[in-house]
Structure formats: C-alpha cells, structure tokens
Fold:
Amino acid sequence: MPLFLNNDEVEQLLTMKTCMEALETLYRELGEGTAVAASRTDIHSPTAAAQSGEAPMAHYLKSMSGASPHFGTAALRFSSDIVAWRQAGDGMRREKMPTMPGNRWLGIVLLFSSANGELLAIMNDGVIQRMRVGGTNGVATRCLARVDAQTVGLIGCGWQAGTQVMAVCEARRIKKIKVYSPTRTNREKFAAETAPLVGVEIVPVDSQEEAVRDVDIIVTSTNARKPFLGPEALAEGVHLSCMQRDEANDEALIRCRPLVVHTNLTENNSTSSQLSKIAQPGFEFRDHPMQRGIDWKTLPTLPDLISGRIKGRENAQQITGFVNNIGLGVQFAAVGAKVFEAAKAKGLGREMPLDWFTQDVHP
Amino acid sequence: MPLFLNNDEVEQLLTMKTCMEALETLYRELGEGTAVAASRTDIHSPTAAAQSGEAPMAHYLKSMSGASPHFGTAALRFSSDIVAWRQAGDGMRREKMPTMPGNRWLGIVLLFSSANGELLAIMNDGVIQRMRVGGTNGVATRCLARVDAQTVGLIGCGWQAGTQVMAVCEARRIKKIKVYSPTRTNREKFAAETAPLVGVEIVPVDSQEEAVRDVDIIVTSTNARKPFLGPEALAEGVHLSCMQRDEANDEALIRCRPLVVHTNLTENNSTSSQLSKIAQPGFEFRDHPMQRGIDWKTLPTLPDLISGRIKGRENAQQITGFVNNIGLGVQFAAVGAKVFEAAKAKGLGREMPLDWFTQDVHP
Structure:
C-alpha cells in the first residue's frame, strides 16, 4: 500500500546528512552508468488567465524521472503550476502562482520499487526537492572546497538558502557564515533563524562584496536571471557553489578549475504556438531563457567528479566551482528511498489503497 | 477535488465516437502548433528478478505528457512495469508481468486543468489508452480510406483489436469484417464477442491471405516484432491501418500514398548499464528494438494530415497507409478531458482530497 507523506512528515524524516549520503551514492552510480537519469520534460500551454504583452502567463507541467539500482527504486516527480513572467530588476523572472484552493501549489514525487514495480510512496515535493538541491551543492562542496574551509559568504536568503546552509555545514566544519541579500530585514531574519539550526554563527552584512570577502566558500542561492557575481569575488583557494545557472558570470566561471555542473542533460521544452504569439518577439517560455557564453553540455558533471573520472581540488590555491544547473528526477529515487525507509521505520504517513492505482489489464 | 476513475468507469463514460472527435480536434491543434506534445520518457533499470542471458527482465518506468489548449487540459500518463523479453516466433517480444498484488499492472493518467493547474482526475490508464489507440487509427482511416469502404480484413484478435474494430466501424459504414489470428479458438471467440458490440458481421478466416483478400481496409492489430504483411496484400484502393510499427514490411509501406505516421517524436530511452551487461550483445532495452528501413522521422504525421498540410486520398485507386508508430501523452489531455466531463455530468468516480496533492510551499 503506497504511503502518502506530506511535507511536514518528509521534514521530520530526512536529515541533510542522510540526503547527502544518498546523493553521493547516487552520483557514483550515475558516473558508472548504473543509475538512470532522463532529461526532464517541460510543457508550456496557454492558461485562461494568459495575458498579452511582455509578462505572459502559462500553464507549466513539468515531469522528471530516473532510477537507482542501488536503492532499488525509480521516481517520477511532477508539478503543475500557473507561471507568470515578471520584469524584475535583473530581467524576466518566472513566478509560480499559488492558484490552487487555499493559495497552494501542486508538486508530487512518486516513488516506485524496481523489485516489482509497485508504487511505494506519494510525497509532496516541496521539502524533499529543497533538501536535494541543497544536498547536491553539499556533495560537490565536500569534493571541491578546501578541507580546512571554515568561512562561508552566502548571497541570498530565500527558502532555498536554508538548505544551502545546512549542506555547506554538513560538508565542512564551518565556523562563520556572512549573508547578504538586498533587503536588510530579510537577511537579519534569516541569520537569526538559521544560526540555531546549524549551530554556526551567521552574520548579516550590508553588501555582496562584504559577504564574499575573505571567505573559503561562496554560496549563491538566488532566483537571479542575470549573473551578478564576477571574477573579482573569487580569491585564491575559494570554492564557488552556485544553486543555479545565472548567478556567477562567464568570466567568474571560467576561472574555476574544475568547473563542474550537476548534469549535462537539458530539459525537453515544448511550448504551444498560442503562447509564442502573445509574447514579445524573442521571449522564450523556458526556465532559463537567457543565452549564456558557457557551453554547459561540455563541462564535467557531478557524477564525473564523484566517480573519479575527473580530478577535484588538487591544491589549496586553485579556485573550484560547481553550478547546480538543472535538477534530475533520479535524485528523488535516491533521496525518496531514504525518506520512505525512515517513514516505514517510524510508522509515519497514511496508507492509500494500492488497488486504486493498479488494474487487471495491461496496455 | 480530483476524481478517481477506474477502468470500469472510464469504459462507461467514453464512446469511440467521442474519443475520435476529441482526437480529431487534437490533431488539428497539433498540426497548428497550439497543442503541445512531448516525447515520452522510457527508463529501464535492473529488477530484483533480473535474469542473465537472452531473455532479460527490467523495471520499466514510462511517462508521457502533453497539453491541449482547446480542451484546457494537460495530462501526464505513467506506468511502472516489470517487463521480460521472451523469444517468440518472430523475435524478442516484451511482456509486461503482472507483478502487483493480485496479479495486476500499474498505469495511471493524471489530468490537469490549464486554467489553474489543479489536478482534475486520476484514472487507471488501461481502458482510455486502448480507446485512444483504436481512435487514432480510426481518425486516420476517416481521412484515408475510400469513402465507400465497407469491408475490413483484420489481422490479430487481442485486447487492442476490439477498439480497432470499434474505430473502423465509426470511421466508415462497414458491412463485413474478416478476422485472422493464428489460433482458431481465439479468432472465433473474438468474432462472436465483437460482432454484437458493433452490429457488423465478423467472420473468422483460416489465413492471413484470406483475411486481406478483396477488402477495402486492412487493419493490423498485433504485438508482432517482425513485419508479417507484404505488398502482395495491398490491392488497388485499399487503406492499410497498422496499430504499431512492426506489422507491414518496408516494401508494403513504401507502396502507400500517402504513408502517414502518428508522430515523428521518438521516445527518450535511458537504460542502466547493469542491464546492458546482462543482455546478449546487440540486445536493446527498447519498445521497438529492431532497426527498420523506414525513416519514420521524415514521414508526414497525423497532425499534418488532419490540419490539411498534406493531402489525404485523392482517388479511388491509390493505396493509402497509416502507422500508429508511437503514442503521445497529449492524447490523454484531449480524451481524458471528455472522460472527466462525462464523469462530472454523470456523478461517477470518487473524490480525493486535493490538499493531499497540494502544498503551501513552492519549489
């Protein structure tokens, strides 16, 4: 009988330590070709509320899948959102609108057993996806940051920044974190709330320059759509850990040795021509519409790094970099397996009738 | 609140007429670029029962999605199966094993509203997928068969053959159907059971040659993995309707004008290297592992035909052909919308709590 697990339950069941261990095992498997990662599929279609002009809206159905033989699982994650692109200071930014009753969003992880194919669990995806994003940067940091790294400069203090802090503290014995984001009250609140969770001093600072000065690790955790971090931020020996693609600029990234990306799979993007017609010329219905000078597909990946196909840090002077450029469904096969295992052990979740999902005919 | 609809309910709610009308609308939308079809994603990973040698097993997670602005819906269909490849007379044939408790299979269609993104329905996929396969061939037959076509030669009498008969009878005023399949009792049973459903005479015959002789439409509905129908079967003016790729051979297909395929999207296939190691050299974990001389990607598609981009039948002499080469998730957005609409009208299905699927955070 599949277990239904909500975000509160996932949060109780999954530690960053467990999440990073699962991901590290997974990246080794991926490097060896035993785990299976597929490109995610993005579908954009018109929504009733579609506007014309520069800030169109769309219905966005996303799905991603993968399988991990080590964990004996496969996963399918999907989300269904009404998205709007709004002109922000740094370009067009996509926002997911809370259009479900009660101002909610819809995102689910389905976990399957590879032993008999059965559906093991249905989980809200919010907490687990945030953990695996942070955990992925954490796994890379463990390979790339100096072993004695103890200071962090963090740019951004949104919801994702919390797990980035958990992950960097799991990867290294961090003593101090400086955090900058444009709104003072936000960074102060974030510092006050997050410090006790990780037992590390977190100091809000007044500028990006101050945040990245004299630190061992720089973490960017923003929804920027134009890169804001240049090579001047990168002192000798630093590790740059980017949560997404458009945070460090090309000049900064090409200084990293190695520069590692999460994956060189890209999304399969399909868009209704009705949407293209209502948007301004050149507008693209994509997660990352901006063209970059970096050819992401040719860069080494986290599986390459973890499986030893490429070298990590070789000395204390080099500048290393990791860009968590795009997520993979297979992450949920590994991390989801650990959540499911913990839920069974603790008796959490609600059982659903499996026979609703199964049938006596096969297509 | 999403409606849960099982196969029995879908069967009550969906007629072939409605199914074909929905698909015809959809193919026009696809031809115009307004509907959105994405390639399906196939993931093959090792299963606990994986065997070595020539007949390996795998866990197979399939997912496909698409959106139809006309119907205001998007759909995600997925299935999770343990599959085994067995040596049949005509090559390696893939079988889905009933490994769920109660000897069942797992396949689901999720239907979403493009107005606000919400999950409208969860359906077992068996009945709806069979209807859309038949319906797709039916829509093509309506465009390509002679208007006065009244006789059908059917090869195959499995579960899918029933909807093929329903569809051809919906497309044309059929008077008589001859059916052949290798096992006499199967074809006799099929004829006896199916004739009353469509109100048409169905005659079991003793050979493939007899089935296709002097008919206006040939329908193949088999799980063959080596083509079994050659050009000698194709008399002047006939329409050839193939349920899948490997039924008519290359020589037969190139005689068709036009030869139309369902889609030129192909599956994204990802396979664990562990599986490749246990299989014989050259074995491929794919739905259609055999190489064909036909370059499917360059052929006109059903959306091309329905939207008028290519011509259909132009005279009573030409031989026309359609190959339902691969399914699309977007079919479930259109047909699923009609099922959902009918379920609401009739009060069928069980409501599930939507808030299980939604959350107060967005990734």
